[in-house]
Model the fold of this input.
Amino acid sequence: MPLLLDIVTPEKLAYSGEVDSVQLPGSEGELGVLPHHAPLIATLGAGELRIRKGGSEETFAVFGGFLQVLPDKVVVMAESADLAADIDLERAQEARREAERTIESGDHLVSSG
Done:
C-alpha cells in the first residue's frame, strides 16, 4: 500500500503523489515514515526531505512548518520546500556570503532608543 504525500508551502504545492517512504527533519531529529505509520503531528526542522518511490529517490530542501502523518497520508506544510535538483547552487552560495557579511558588519542589529 503506497503512502500519499503532499508537500505544500505558502506559495505552491511543491509535491503531490504516492511514495514508498519519506525521511524528513523534525525539529527534534530525523523522522522516517512508512505506510501504516501511527498518526502524528510534529514540527518540521530545516534540512533534507527524502522521498523514496520504487528504486528512485528525490530530495527537497525544507525549512520550518508542520507535519501531519495519517496511516495512508503525509502532509508537510513547510515555510519553504525546494526540489534539490532545482536549486541554483551559485545563487544560494552568494546569498549565504551576503548573510555572513551582514552578520559580521552588525547591520542586522537594531538599536532601541
About this structure: DSSP finds one helix and eight strands in the chain. Residues 3-105 form a domain with the ATP Synthase; domain 1 fold (CATH 2.60.15.10). Residues 90 and 96 are 10 Å apart (CA to CA).
